[in-house]
Amino acid sequence: MLTTISEHNRNSSVEQLTEVLLSELLVGADGTDVRCGVIGELGCSWPITESEVRVLRAAASAQQQLGCPIIIHPGRNPLAPAHALRVLQEEGGDAAKTVMSHLDRTIFAECDLLEFSELGSFLEFDLFGTEMLNYHFDLSVDMPSDSQRIHTLSFLMKEGLGQRLLIAHDIHTKNRLTKYGGHGYSHILNNIVPKMLQRGFTQEQVHQILVDNPKRWLTFK
Asked: Which of 93, 160, 101 is nearest to 127 (CA)?
């Protein structure tokens, strides 16, 4: 993530970064009057860099003041999500208003997922529609299939974590759009939800994951 951070921001203090975040939330982003509704996605490397730690701390400070939602992109290591979340919490950040994204390419063992869940953040599985033999960012990773993602969601639901589950597509390139032959933004509604219902999820549980949980996360305290 280091290469995507400007030199100015890379060298800014926590206090300076906090002021930027507060301004974009309360006044507007990039000189406009369009205010942000979420802090993130906060990109973290592995191992995490000093500048990324400062960004996490600034986000925690802004969240403390406004009660706003945060979403974190963890580094590609099973230890990365917990490390990033603890940095946020140590600065006063609220795990209950924070989403840890990309868990379906980061933490694979069920016991490790349960251990991470104890930190209290939302658990997001957001690569639905992405199935590949080789994950080019980390060839050691066996990217799960959508069926495996549903299985993991079912496991976590049965463990009593239904109120903290989120799902998404992570669509960020043209080839994922239906216009270019991809699965598109309708994939979860058209294909994943019916499969979840076939695999034992109730309609209420699906509504919880797709509607109630995002609403609770996105609402400022």
From this structure: 101
Whether the model clears a pTM of 0.90, i.e. scores above it, the answer is yes
User: Residues 3-29: pLDDT tens digits?
Assistant: 456 787 788 999 999 999 999 999 999
Residue-wise pLDDT for 92-129, tens only, equals 999 999 999 999 999 999 999 999 999 999 999 999 99
Indicate the angle between helix axes 110-117 and 146-158, nearest 10 degrees.
50
CA distance 9 to 5: 6
Amino acid at 199: R
Q: What single letter denotes the amino acid at residue 177? A: L
CA-closest candidate to residue 196, choices 149, 145, 131: 149
What domains appear along the chain, each with residue ranges and CATH number?
Answer: 2-125+133-218 (3.20.20.140)
Cβ density class 149-176: b for 16+ within 10 Å, e for less: bbebbeebbeeebbebbbbbbbbeeeeb
Asked if residues 98 and 72 have their Cβ atoms less than 8 Å apart, the reply is yes
